[in-house]
Amino acid sequence: MSGARAVIPLIQVDAFTSAPFGGNPAAVCLLTGPAGEGWMQDVAREMNLSETAFLYPEGSGYRLRWFTPTVEVDLCGHATLASAHVLWERGRVPPESRIDFETKSGRLSAERQGEWIELDFPAKPVEPVESPPDLLAALGVPACFVGRNRLDYLVEVEGESTVRALRPDLALLASLPVRGVMVTSGADDPRYDFISRFFAPGSGIAEDPVTGSAHCALGPYWMVRLGKEQLLGYQASARGGTVRVGVRGDRVRLGGQAVTVLRGELV
User: Fold this and answer.
1) What domains, with CATH codes, occur in the chain?
2) Which string of DSSP letters, residue by residue, matches 39-85?
3) N or C terminus of the chain with fewer C-beta within 10 Å?
């Protein structure tokens, strides 16, 4: 990144929601070229959101990286959704064009589907594992199933009321050697197929409001459990958010809406 005094657009977007102050807020930092990791981490800490996205043009698409207030992460759905929303909204990309992002998780893409944005992400299915003692102790509830992929643990519990009532021991969860823990059950509301919550204190996020990347595991899991390739999930955080999930082999299509709530400049 050249020019220490360059003015850099910084936009805050609520992702996986159709209304402001819902879903998951992400900051999107529009760069002209690469920036230092330390500087990006400082900006993410300053924004103090679950993720801040940094992107700049590269080839026919964009290079994209994501930072929590404490660490860089390999995959993030809501900040990718927010990034695509900003590029279309600011006219950087024609509204009918697909956007390709090069990331630490390979190439990801975004397309507009009316009022929705659809992301093409890698599926991250979990494998059944024996639960480490600290996991269920931290959650304080029995599990129907425990699985793990490279990023996270997935824990299915008895029902929606259990998911909503969780008050986990965050310090104990932070000791686990994973990015985070998703807790899920079938949904009581017939509009949804499943609900979930996502805790990532070890990555600097006590509870993430809506986690697109977690649905790369939740989608394949509930596809097998329910026998459906098209699913609708609700993440039952205090802000709440809705994620469409379509499973296509080793890829997952994540659908959501987004709303800009703040536009500024980083100087």
Assistant:
1) 8-117+256-266 (3.10.310.10), 127-249 (3.10.310.10)
2) HHHHHHHHHTSSEEEEEEEETTEEEEEEE-SS-EES--HHHHHHHHH
3) C
pLDDT values of the chain reduced to their tens digit, one per residue, 267 residues:
444 567 999 999 999 999 999 999 999 999 999 999 999 999 999 999 999 999 999 999 999 999 999 999 999 999 999 999 999 999 999 999 999 999 999 999 999 999 999 999 999 999 999 999 899 999 999 999 999 999 999 999 999 999 999 999 999 999 999 999 999 999 999 999 999 999 999 999 999 999 999 999 999 999 999 999 999 999 999 999 999 999 999 999 999 999 999 999 998
CA angle 241–244–250, rounded 5-degree value: 130
Please name the helix (run of DSSP H) or strand (run of DSSP E) that holds residue 183, with its range, or none.
strand 180-186
